[in-house]
């Protein structure tokens, strides 16, 4: 089978190689998946650079998150699945937990409790992106912060993939959103998506605008994937007792010095207003959630997407051979489409990449 392998840590375009490898064999409680489509996430590339929250042993097959495919074989005693079944494999490496197989290969082995059945009517593009961004949005809004209908929720990077999903989910749940963007040109787009209020940090004061929109005591919950001064401003804008959950650090996207990944919080605000700032990392959630809880949350996401509540943007298909172009697109500014490695372009309806 074909596999895209990183021979060492480094820039993905420099260290990735297309190789031929034996088809793996599933053990007890596992299934062999014939991969249909798998995305290229920016976090996948950070793993290869050695600047993510874990590092694989090199050489390693790239892609550490999710894919969709069909079960080609079952390991001894594996129950509840059948050969030929179409499944999403949520192979997000759990922390703590053992390493998992990379998804950028034609076949991979996955634990049965990480597999979720998906209908054929769900496109390969949508199905292969269920287990990371939509799941993150669902967990942040409904579990980490338990935002209730009518409450305000502040979020940064509202135009990101997760940000757009948070807007859609919040509309469905009756949650009011204050959406922070950095470019004036993005405001109209976020409003069209259903964002109730939009703040542009290019020419607006974030703290002042939150107070003007919702009053000084009405905003208690926020999510942030920018960190740096913007994350600190969101914390400052919250009412006493407010909660901020940080799940990314886009402000330091290219930063390789861990000591530079900071959020300069105001001590008075944290101490005297008893605000909470904590992190969320999907990998750690997978490492602590039970198999039953994992599948339940994934099923929620599948149903929300299947019912049209959440819409995942159509990805752009690439064959493995075009990995350099796919990797470049994954981090291109305002690239619009998520690059997907597709092993049968006909199923995606994507034609030439």
Can you characterise this structure?
The protein has 353 residues and is an alpha/beta fold. It has two domains: 2-130 and 291-348, Quinone Oxidoreductase, Chain A, domain 1 (Alpha-Beta Complex), CATH 3.90.180.10; 136-280, Rossmann fold. It has 13 helices and 16 strands. The strands form three sheets. Strands 3, 5, 6, 7, 8, 15 and 16 form a seven-stranded mixed sheet that branches. A six-stranded parallel sheet has the order 11-10-9-12-13-14, with helices on both faces. Strands 2-1-4 form a three-stranded antiparallel sheet. Helix 4 (133-144) packs across helix 5 (161-173) and helix 7 runs parallel beside helix 8. The two termini are 21 Å apart. Mean pLDDT is 91; it is low at 345-353.
Give descriptors for this structure.
alpha/beta; 31% helix; Rossmann fold; 2 domains; 16 strands; single chain; 353 residues; globular
Give a quick summary of the entry:
The chain is α/β, with parallel strands linked by helices and 353 residues long. The chain has 2 domains: 187 residues, Quinone Oxidoreductase, Chain A, domain 1, CATH 3.90.180; 145 residues, NAD(P)-binding Rossmann-like Domain (Rossmann fold).
Going by helix content, strand content and strand pairing, the class is alpha/beta
In the CATH scheme, the class of the largest domain would be Alpha Beta
Rg from alpha-carbon coordinates: 20 Å
Overall geometry comes to globular
> In percent, how helical is the residue content?
25-40%
The helix-strand sequence is EHEEHEEEEEHHEHEHEHEHEHEHHEHEH
Main sheet overview: 7 strands, mixed
Q: Kindly report how far apart the N and C termini lie.
A: 21 Å
